[in-house]
Amino acid sequence: MLGSLHTGFAPGEAIGRNFLSFLGQMLRVLPCVFILVGLFDVWIKTETVEKHLGHGSGLLSYVWAVLLAGTTVGGLQVVLPVAHALYVKRANLSVVLAFLSAAGICRVPMTLFEASFLGWRFTCIRFAVSLPLVVLFSAVIGWWFDQRRYRLPDVDETTDKAEAQHR
């Protein structure tokens, strides 16, 4: 980027401006996200997340995941820390996957934008097709990981340390 500024290379300058714009957005959003995730970690008990989003919580857990994903504002820089916090609080992996997938397709700001350009009929049809597929494939992938007793690396250690600190 600095070389582009020095030589006047226009594409490099445009890349630099885009990078600085994105960096500014990240620096404005991330502190708020980390504060909210930290508050979630402190205020919401693991047992509550386990009861509503954990193993054996049933189909309603996917509804909660989709509703939570729909209210998420921002991109992956918001969704990924929330998904991690859910998993650390012992949400079922398939529910976390449903949350991640639903955040990509049904966030309220994105839905309003889509409906204003393509119409509510299109948006409703897309939801009717995509949301059941999100739940189905999240459940299948979660089941597949459960059959292989797969756990995300060092999340179990993080959970044990966090629980020891809260005792």
Question: What does this protein structure show overall?
Answer:
- The chain is an all-alpha fold.
- It has one domain (44-166).
- Helices cover 81% and strands 0% of the residues.
- The protein is built from 9 helices and no strands.
Number of strands: 0
Mean pLDDT: 86
**Low-pLDDT segments, ≥5 res:** none
Q: Oligomeric form of this entry?
A: single chain
Distance between the termini: 50 Å
How much is the radius of gyration in Å? Answer: 19 Å
Share of helix among residues?
over 70%
The largest β sheet comes out as:
none
- The best one-word shape is globular
| Count of discrete structural domains | 1
Q: In sequence order, what are the helices and strands, one letter per element?
A: HHHHHHHHH
Tell me the strand percentage band.
under 5%
The secondary structure category is mainly alpha
**DSSP helix count?**
9
Topology:
Layout: H1 2-7, H2 10-43, H3 46-53, H4 60-70, H5 76-88, H6 93-105, H7 108-118, H8 120-147, H9 155-166
Question: Can you give keywords for this protein?
Answer:
single chain; about 170 residues; mainly alpha; 9 helices
